[in-house]
Amino acid sequence: MRRILATLAFICLTMPAFAEMTARDGWSVTVTQKSYDALIDDLKKAAKANKMGVVTQAGPTGAARNRGITIPGNRVIGLFNNVFAVNVLKLSTAAMIEAPIRMYVTENKDDTATLSYKLPTTVFGPYIDEAGPELAKLAQELDVIFAAISAQAVQ
After folding, report:
1. Rounded distance, CA 20 to CA 138, Å?
2. Closest CA to 44 of 94, 105, 90, 125
3. CB 141, CB 113: distance < 8 Å
4. 100-144: per-residue pLDDT in tens?
């Protein structure tokens, strides 16, 4: 019995667990025909082309693999630039905790990938009352930039 339970536990831990992203309020979710690695590369190129830097990257896939666990590709890439950072700080110190804006690349069952992110207007929304309409305008500008990054990355 212990062997059976151990075998089942091993299968569950090493079997890919796909929980694909779905549409949700305040988010952009785009399923692509690109592979996971290709979408990551194209996202980085699109960010640079739109004057946003890759500030952070994190994901559990490689660390899980190092532990003997196989999971689908999963990477969060934070994008921002210093001009927007300084402008956010002028308006709200608290809002700066939301930077960088994170874009999320997830691998799908069919070896394609999905690009998802919270809209900057959603991310900075909780700080608008404190910071005023200037932060709302800045977030709308970021919505346009992040939509352009997404469109370029997924094409």
Report:
1. 31
2. 105
3. no
4. 999 999 999 999 999 999 999 999 999 999 999 999 999 999 999
Residue at token pair 């025909």? 33
For 87, the token pair is 């402008």
Q: Please identify which residue in the block is written with the tokens 């590709």.
A: 73
Say what the pTM is. Answer: 0.86
Task: Look up residue 116 and give its two tokens.
Answer: 């998802």
